User: Fold these one by one.
Assistant:
Number 1:
Amino acid sequence: MTHCLFSFTETRNRCYRSAFTGSGLRSTITDLKDGTAMHCWAPKAPIEAKPNLLLIHGLGANALWQWGDFVRRLTPLFNVYVPDLVFFGESYTTRPERSERFQAECVMRVMEAQGVRRVSVVGLSYGGFVAYCMAAMERETVVVEKVVVCGSGVCMEERDVKEGLFPVTDLDEAASILVPQTPNKLKELVGYSFFKPTLFSWLPSCFLHDFIEVRKFFSTLHVSMQDPIIFMFSTLSRRYNPTVHCF
């Protein structure tokens, strides 16, 4: 395997951290007192007149990579909160739960700890399932006002998986693509994720390998990520058959 002389991924991660801190956000860790700790980027000085906005990431190294290009535009308008979901970034748990509802409960508790009482939520990919669960919860402490779900199959049925653009034979094959361990699998994932991934396909394998290795560090800080991801996705297609109301 050819390695790059420097880590483009770590350099990019530092740039994203600078973008977050430069946008008035600070890194926080909330101990939920049950073997779970949640990392979240939160406003250094929340402004009461601004609405609260929660950004929930999907699969990836951490929240920085999926929201780093947006925070500068959003922080002037909102009090922005960007958590790392459990098993991503610096968030972890020793509990056995692996469901998106458990993720939603953890994020809700982080919002409570941050003193947030009303919030709008944007969920991307897997984060969309978490956002959907948060919206379905009835909590007196935190009210979810609005939800935007991006690129999530919350209305997906089992036949959609079999007949869709992501044909896999079992969960192990799905995990090998969703949590790629080789440059070729990473290219395959990008091929599913982007409409025209032409530029990405030309990147040298050393850059892709670098991203995989750095992502492993961010996503396996405390536990192996592969098994939790398999558990997370094993019940999604069976659990969701929601009624969606559009206004």
Number 2:
Amino acid sequence: MVRSLPSVSMEGRRLEEEEQEQREVLLIHSQVRRIKREDEETRRHLLKLQLLETRPAAGHGQEASRPASRSLSPLRRSGSAIPVGDWA
């Protein structure tokens, strides 16, 4: 006699196990996809911050303008304190 019934149930179990593995793979895959998406968002954010730090002040390839000229008043030009009053 040949018993085909146990082999069918074994095949059924094997199919159920494979289906379970496929479902688990999909769950892992969605988690991996989420992690990769978060990683890409983080990389874009860091790149944006780096660009902000390295961007020239004038922007768009133009030369940076020189700082505003200092006051030409005699007090500034002397570079030292100007005595006021009688300190003798």
Number 3:
Amino acid sequence: MIGWGTEAWSGRVAVAVAAAVAAGVLGAAAPGAAAAQATGPAGCPGRLAKSVRFATGELRVYKNRQYACALTVAKAPGTRRSMAVTLQSRGGRAVTDAGRFTHRAGPVTVHALNRCVRATGSVSGRGGATGWILC
């Protein structure tokens, strides 16, 4: 009888532990989901700071406390075409992502704590620029 009671008790403990582990895993996934929502729709963290539309697409610049992030999105995605995005903080080197893409170029990120940034973007040879912003 002692052995039977111990086995039944340990079975209940195993079920409780399994439920707690599952709840912990699901609970740990929730903050990750919240972090994913804090990221912009295309992978840039922070809030949209500036958007520049041009004939073939749009240049978007995002900003959080320490970083600025930029990407160029095609107006009509699907066909592979030349796209580029460049982001530079004042006093820093420009970071560029250029190539033949179907949807977007970027994201590119620079450290921008207490610094102005400028961005340029193009799709199929047409583009736009921000000038110095976030100063």
Number 4:
Amino acid sequence: MRQLGQGRWLGKLLVAGLFAAAVLHTPGTDLDRSDVYGTEGNEPGLDADRLPVKKSGFFFTEYLANEVARLQSPDGTGTGGGQANQGSTAGQADPGIQANPAGQANPAVQAGQGQESQGKGSNMVVAGQGGSRGGTGPSIYGNIVTEGEKEVHPQDMILGGATLTLLRSQSDSQMLSAILQTSQGKLIVVDGGLGADGDYLRSQIQARGSHVAAWLLTHPHGDHAGALYKILQDEAAGLQSGIQIDGIYYSFAAPEWYSVNDPTEQTMAHAIIGSFSGLPEGMLNTVGRGQTIQVDDVTVQVMNDRYETSQDKGNNAGIVYKIWVNGKSILFLGDMAEEGGRRLLSEVGAEGLKSDIVQMAHHGQNGVDEEFYKAVNPSICLWPTPQWLWDSVGSRYRTSETKGWMTHLNVQRHYCTKDGDQVIR
């Protein structure tokens, strides 16, 4: 009799275990370390209160409904009184789930961007205050509508005759490539993108008169310096493009530094540094904090010396440039990460970082932290971000976290390369 009772108890336990497994392993919901705010080589472990839900299904629908009700309630429990529990995050939803059948924005659910917002579904992220990096952003990530998604575009002249163009990727990759044309016609190029972007960048430079007064490099990663490397290699091979480059501005470590501290990017670092050896004297300019570069009526300010950090060493060793045009300031962050961002903030203070326009660090995710962006306090954000990264495909990407910060800062204008080349005049 005792053995039979124990068998029934074990049977019930087995059924309960199978049910729990079904919840956590509904098809498409397998979890691993990279699914929770994964970062490049620096993934935190799974936290019990931040389990991502990657696909649709009964259990996801029930979970999302409960989570939305909880976050909308005053006490974060679904029954009234306080704020949402801190750190609670649901991961990316299946694109096939409709955010709101009535067609109206749900304040607790982030609607999809671009095509996703046209009826195919949405990326839904619900998050507790603070998030995984200790910020103080909103408890629910806001919906950002980019300028490319708007039907009516502002006609105001921001740059007083100058034109800033953020170029789209030619390979659907993350990259950074920007051309600033002064009111007198000279060009300032920032980074340039991958080697695959080289031909397009060259054509855009040629269309603007072919005269690059200053080529600014943030750091020697392939998605930033690859296009310049291709152009220099083509020129060395006798493929004359007619492009005139007055000066290249950068701060790189010795090649062996990248072999030790940034091995995944050492090939491009070695290549671009090697390509400099054949350039005319006077074209190469090593920069440091406080230096300024004048091109017509545009002033470029070098914000930092190259940092030596304990983490994300290659990105944190990048240079930040602040460009002044017609009384407006544009902050180019490259791929600056948290540690480098904190050092820069401590060195120059919030007043030194304050800018009208900011290029989102590391393509809009896993870059500088929320406190840094608060100090910048921009009116316009530049997102060098392809569609898949904008949509945070795969929960290892933290784009939605950054979107939440910008919503909290009430930034209204967002230019994103997922929509094509972006132009600000």
